[in-house]
Task: inverse folding
């Protein structure tokens, strides 16, 4: 929604803080990525980026399959209308109970990282009297350049090393209740530009060819991952990828003669590119003061709502762009310290931001936080209220929801 001020001026305006998800922008992101991939390619939405039910339902309705990695994500995907037969269940460690729930739901495909993982999946499938399909996840030899977060070519919980698979291919073969459908590769996230994407996909395709030749197994499906980059908490548009589809088609046709009519099916996955630009965090100014010669602006939101997950390399300061929603805001003021309300000095977004002169009660917004925003933050820390999540189409509010994380359900006690 382009006019945030109108949204927050209306009688039914959301409370703040609020994550606003623009479903029209979500549709545009899907169309852009779909156009950047070969027509026959399959596309998974990675729920880890944003599992909000309306976001998931919108992408499922558009044509995405669901890539999940927890029981909670499985339940959200099912409720959003995703076909379990088309789901991919990933993750480097899975509990028997989690696999059992997914098998009962008839999830169609599992990514497995080790021989033990194949044995575990076989045991669970046998217990439920069924068979399942698996992709063996690969940890390639070397990382590809241009990644925001490397996930292969290093010591990792993700996937089996190529050398291990080449030396002991029998360890990664089918089990009585597990059919090996192909390979899963994911080199890294937030990859910068078409050239870097093509470089990592080229490396992955060559690795698949080596492994297929060594094992004598021709894959039915290759999941090449994704890593499609998008701005995070900064102003800007998602990157254009105008030549990627043609370059991928040439790459795959050269590697697998007859493709796409013959050869393996090819899949990609994305969370950041699909959801990132649809989300905006709108929050109020709580206090403005001077301290040690600097202006300090305290917001309703901080690392508990955005940027608190160190594993995504987003420890503060993340230095988000802050856009004023209220037209009365004054001229830009350099050197502003921007903090949240938490009782810790770590709750700081920026120490030298350029921010218009604001007053307590003013609204400011952080753009492009539809992916890895609320759901990658320290939401339980200090028990502040959760942001409202608002989905909109044009000027219509579709839904307003709020997660509740401070309610405790007793699962066992002994009070004597």
Result:
């Amino acid at each position: 929604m382009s006019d945030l001020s109108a949204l927050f001026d209306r009688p039914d305006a959301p409370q703040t803080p609020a994550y606003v998800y623009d479903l029209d922008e979500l549709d545009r992101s899907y169309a852009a990525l779909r156009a950047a991939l070969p027509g026959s390619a399959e596309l998974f939405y990675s729920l880890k980026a944003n599992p909000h039910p309306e976001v998931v339902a919108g992408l499922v309705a558009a044509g995405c399959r669901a890539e999940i990695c927890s029981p909670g994500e499985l339940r959200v995907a099912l409720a959003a209308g995703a076909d379990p037969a088309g789901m991919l269940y990933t993750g480097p460690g899975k509990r028997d109970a989690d696999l059992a729930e997914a098998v009962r739901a008839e999830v169609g495909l599992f990514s497995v990282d080790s021989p033990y993982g194949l044995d575990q999946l076989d045991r669970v499938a046998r217990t439920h009297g069924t068979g399942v399909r698996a992709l063996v996840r690969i940890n390639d030899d070397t990382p590809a350049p241009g990644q925001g977060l490397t996930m292969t070519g290093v010591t990792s919980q993700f996937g089996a090393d190529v050398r291990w698979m080449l030396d002991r291919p029998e360890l990664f073969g089918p089990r009585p209740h597990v059919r090996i459908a192909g390979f899963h590769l994911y080199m890294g996230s937030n990859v910068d530009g078409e050239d870097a994407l093509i470089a990592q996909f080229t490396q992955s395709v060559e690795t698949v060819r080596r492994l297929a030749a060594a094992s004598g197994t021709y894959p039915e499906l290759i999941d090449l991952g994704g890593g499609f980059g998008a701005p995070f908490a900064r102003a800007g548009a998602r990157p254009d990828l105008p030549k990627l589809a043609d370059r991928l088609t040439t790459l795959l046709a050269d590697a697998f003669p007859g493709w796409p009519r013959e050869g393996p099916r090819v899949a990609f996955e994305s969370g950041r590119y699909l959801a990132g630009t649809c989300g905006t965090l709108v929050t109020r100014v709580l206090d403005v003061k001077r301290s040690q010669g600097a202006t300090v602006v305290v917001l309703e939101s901080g690392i508990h709502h955005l940027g608190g997950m160190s594993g995504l390399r987003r420890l503060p300061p993340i230095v988000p762009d802050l856009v004023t929603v209220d037209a009365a805001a004054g001229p830009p003021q350099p050197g502003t310290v921007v903090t949240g309300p938490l009782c810790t000095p770590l709750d700081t977004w920026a120490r030298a931001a350029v921010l218009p002169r604001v007053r307590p009660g003013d609204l400011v917004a952080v753009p492009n936080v539809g992916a890895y925003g609320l759901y990658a933050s320290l939401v339980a820390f200090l028990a502040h209220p959760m942001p409202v999540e608002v989905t909109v189409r044009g000027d219509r509010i579709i839904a307003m929801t709020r997660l509740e994380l401070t309610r405790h359900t007793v699962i066992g006690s002994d009070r004597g």
User: Anything to note?
Assistant: The chain has a mean pLDDT of 91.
